[in-house]
Amino acid sequence: xxxxxxxxxxxxxxxxxxxxxxxxxxxxxxxxxxxxxxxxxxxxxxxxxxxxxxxxxxxxxxxxxxxxxxxxxxxxxxxxxxxxxxxxxxxxxxxxxxxxxxxxxxxxxxxxxxxxxxxxxxx
Length: 123
What we know:
about 120 residues; mainly alpha; Helix Hairpins; metal-binding; nucleotide-binding; DAGK_sf; ATP-binding; magnesium
């Protein structure tokens, strides 16, 4: 019986390892997520500097996670679309545009949250 528990635990650890590998791959290879990561570092430093509240930290961390996660999904969709249909195709273009639109919507929401948090501190 302990073998099944060990097997489950080992499989979960492997899954976490693969997820970490995927996150590093994304950060190393994708310019858009590198920019978003840089912005995440800036607002994190700003959060410490301005001593934002616990609630503001929750919103800030959630928005950073949302934008970077959606960017990862968008990148995956682009890779799959390019793999399935490498040449230009209207439907593939539409799929990629919709995925990019999701990143745009999350990014706008993040900018709004950041504005609500930091505008009063700057002005």
